[in-house]
Amino acid sequence: MLDQLTGDIAALRRFNRLYTNWLGLLDVHLDGSPFTLSEARVLYELAHRHEPTAAEIARTLNMDRAQISRTLKRFAQRNLLETRINPAHGRQQLLILTPEGRVAAEDLNDKTQTAVGALLRQLPEVQRRRLIGATTTMAQALEAKVEAPAVRLRSLRPGDLGMVTARQAMLYADEYGWDQGYEALVARILADFHDHFDPARDAAWIAETGDDMVGSIFLVHTDEPEVARLRLLYVEPTARGTGTGKLLVSTCIARARQLGYARLTLWTNSVLVAARRIYERAGFVLIDEEPHHSFGHDLVGQTWSLDL
Fold first, then answer.
1. Same domain, 282 and 172
2. How far apart are CA 125 and CA 128, in angstroms?
3. Taking a C-beta distance cutoff of 8 angstroms, is the pair 117, 168 a contact?
4. Same domain, 241 and 99
5. In angstroms, what CA-CA distances link 53 with 219, 249, 259?
């Protein structure tokens, strides 16, 4: 995990160097304007908020209040900013751009639009689409720190079986070092699920946030009419800790009861600690375990059961 984190840190720092150089963010003034980067961000907030306070802007930009205070003082000295007492809170001052301040904000916005547009036009269309897609993904990931996006479950559609196979194979290879034997196993399980699917006995769910798949689970019939099997639960790292795994398992259990099954079983491995905790909390009981060598490792396979 430390090696992975070190690599992630290096990748993000590399992007940051490229990004700041590409957009000229290290220049003393941004986009040929009289403003530094931090001043430009404060000016943007002043132009897009209705009479904010200095504390509100400091919180939004995660900037030191003393730095905000110095910036606002410079704006006032240049006749870009004026203040008035908040009638609802006499100790607060509300910040208002003067007409000159609004002209400056609009001029800065135009210069930034022109500069970024010129940079994007240098890229071939395919690279530009990739860049915009990547920036959208990064923004969504950072926004998720503030508010976790809602998770919804849906049924299968074309492409899902291949996506589940690929994502599970890659995740377990990254996190546990499992080889392609696991990928082959998942592919066989899902091919059998498709070939023998019975809507009266089987079901499957894909968990999504926005348009991104973040997990899956399958309910599969067995040779015993009263027994079903829970298979291939997984949750993407970005969705862990959000209750996605619990939602998938509880949905699968509810459907098994609805279909009239008396018992639900599953097979897992002892190293999958997070999944085992979800099973235990849902009421599953460990009924058997056995060592085996699979996916390039010595493992302990476990069978769990839940009376419905």
1. yes
2. 5
3. no
4. no
5. 54, 46, 58
- State how far the Cα of 135 lies from the Cα of 176, in Å rounded to an integer: 29
In DSSP terms, which residues pair with 82 in a beta bridge?
A: 96
What sign for the dihedral angle of Cα 8, 28, 48, 86? positive
Q: Burial level of 139, CB count in 10 A (0-12/13-18/19+)? A: exposed
Range of the domain at 193: 152-307
Claim to verify: residue 234 and residue 301 sit in the same structural domain = yes
Residue 200 has phi, psi (to 5 degrees) of -85, -10
Give the residue among 195, 215, 197 at the shortest CA–CA distance from 151.
215
* Max CA separation in the chain (angstroms): 82
Q: CATH no. for residue 74?
A: 1.10.10.10
Helix axes 37-48, 65-77, angle to 10 degrees: 80
Q: Does one domain contain both 181 and 44?
A: no
Condensed to tens digits (0 to 9), the pLDDT of residues 25-36 reads 666 565 667 888
**pLDDT one-digit tens code per residue, 245-285:** 999 999 999 999 999 999 999 999 999 988 999 999 999 99
Which two structure tokens, joined as six digits, stand for 33? 């304007």
DSSP secondary structure letter of residue 224:
S
Q: Let me know whether 37 and 95 are in one domain.
A: yes
Residue 58: CB partners within 8 Å, gap ≥ 6? 64, 65, 68
CB 259 within 8 A of CB 308: no
Q: Is residue 14 a contact partner of residue 93, using CB atoms and an 8 Å limit?
A: no
